[in-house]
Amino acid sequence: MRPPLRAIGTFVRCAETGSFSKAALELGMTPQAVSGQIKQLEDWVQVRLFHRTTRKINLTEEGSSFFEHCKSGIDAIDDGIRALRETTSEAVGTVRLAMPYVISRGYIMPILAPFFDLYPRVSIELIIQNQNPDVVEQGVDLGVGSGPMPKGSIIARRLASVELVLCAAPDYLYRFGTPSTLEDIKQHRCVALRHPRTGKIMPWTFRSGDSLVTLDLEGCLTTNDSDTQRQAVLSGIGIGQLASFYVAPNVAAGKLTPLLMGYTAPPYHFFLYMLKRTKIPLKTRVLADFLYRELRKHPDFQPARLREVAPVS
Q: How far is CA 100 from CA 1, 227, 249, in A?
């Protein structure tokens, strides 16, 4: 007697959803049909697979063991189907892509149209949040971020080393003067950034030779969003320490003035990351390669060549 393969697939969905009704909805069947297939499978294996009540179902000990065997077999079939699809050299499916808001708006949106021209059968679901996601719980395939990588087994490729640059709007410097030392900064209005993960105000750190100097500031304005911090500095509210990829276009347009004073801030790094797995789907690989190539050559992510500007008189 041949095994009831369709019933095995139904059994796996019931075990994963914990409900005949939910499995029926996903499979496009009636709950009665699902229940009938499970009964057929139990008759075939001569073992009860589920404990049933009027409200829920639970796997029996034998059912749990059987589920693990079936699941590994179905996963192997899925891998085989994915491999067959990839032999066509055509990427297909949805990629869940996570990143901070400012990266999405300023750097990803402008380059995605050519990607969709190249890969019309790939779709992207963007997950925008300033703190690194739980890649497993949120089902993230690919991400762009800085600082500590998300928890889990991660593959990361460095996109850029980003400098932090002390700067202010020309109008602010005209009104309040240009600080010439780090000690002078304490007398100025400053725009501070609260770390989105730790909730702590981020100190301003500078390097001079082999020494590190840290300024703990109480800003006249504090925000947990780096783009809001940049807008505040552009508006002339105060001095801020901003990422070089923010600063470069604004300095070029004359909207921000860098205040270097012989100090530099330690760089931080932007990464393209993905969950480590035995075989990375083609849809994820092509998007990762595209983003890596395009972002690496973006002028804002090149080493900042910002010269110290003469004080505003």
A: 56, 10, 19
